[in-house]
Design goal:
Layout lengths: L4 E6 L4 H12 L3 E6 L2 H6 L4 E7 L8 H14 L2 E6 L1 H10 L5 E6 L4 H16 L6 E5 L3 H11 L4 E5 L2 H8 L6 E5 L7 H9 L9 E5 L4 H8 L5 E4 L4 H18 L2
Parallel strand pairs: 1-2, 1-3, 3-4, 4-5, 6-7, 6-8, 8-9, 9-10
């Protein structure tokens, strides 16, 4: 099932929230109200693409619920729309990372603008705009293609068959993570990492090495270069996806 449901979260389903829900449903959106309750949120979570916080000063969510929502949204790549007054927005800014908030609206709400924003967000999500970009650098075309197939449903994936091609690609594009073959001919993985770290534009891009050698000496050589991590090339699809998800969650928590 594709994610397309919008959860409108609040203390109670007020008259104004009912108007908002009707407007959204009349526009063809799958939009439901959910109370600030972890069990109720979990029960309605499947299929949710976007969470709307309908706030007012007397009915803000408990911090425990907010932390639960932030952690779950971070883990699954969900976004929030917030609706409230200036004091509510300060509360949100103090407790939610800015990159999770797609858009904020002041009350009284323009329901038509809200619906347009939700449709815009769903369109962007469908086109993969919110996905992380991973650049895979490896001289083996078979391994490149296999890894791309493993990752393409979850991430935007770019490929380069040499270190120099990767540097050229990064001159015009941005990556959230580079998976870099350690044992490449001509320009090796360590040499590519050195070039990346010496350039102001690329020095902060996380790099994880790909290596076919799992013996202690080889692993120590890789780790000594201080990449963000490394993967053995015999890793299976499920473990690779799990490790990448874990990495991006940790990165987002560090950025708070």
């Amino acid at each position: 099932m594709s994610d397309s449901r919008i959860l409108v979260l609040g203390e109670k389903e007020t008259y104004l929230i009912r108007i908002l829900l009707k407007k959204a449903k009349d526009a063809g959106l799958d939009c439901i109200f959910v109370k600030w309750d972890v069990n109720e949120i979990i029960a309605n979570w499947e299929g949710a693409a976007l969470l709307t916080f309908y706030l007012d000063e007397a009915m803000r969510p408990p911090l425990s619920v907010l932390r639960f929502l932030v952690d779950k949204a971070t883990e699954e790549g969900k976004h929030f729309i917030t609706i409230g007054e200036p004091g509510d927005m300060r509360f949100i800014c103090d407790n939610i990372p800015g990159d999770l908030i797609y858009k904020s609206f002041n009350r009284p709400l323009d329901n038509d603008e809200y619906v347009r924003s939700v449709k815009e967000m769903l369109k962007k999500k469908g086109e993969g705009e919110f996905r992380k970009t991973i650049l895979i650098v490896d001289d083996d075309p078979g391994y490149l293609g296999l890894t791309r197939e493993w990752l393409r449903d979850t991430y935007k994936v770019a490929m380069a068959n040499s270190g120099l091609q990767a540097i050229k690609w990064l001159g015009k594009n941005k990556a959230d993570l580079i998976l870099l073959d350690y044992e490449m001919p001509v320009t090796t993985g360590p040499q590519v990492l050195e070039m990346l770290r010496s350039d102001e534009e690329t020095k902060d891009i996380p790099v994880m090495f790909l290596t076919g050698k799992g013996d202690k000496e080889s692993v120590m050589s890789v780790v000594a270069l201080k990449p963000e991590g490394y993967f053995l090339k015999n890793i299976d699809r499920a473990e690779l996806l799990s490790k990448l998800q874990e990495f991006f969650i940790v990165q987002k928590h560090k950025g708070r």
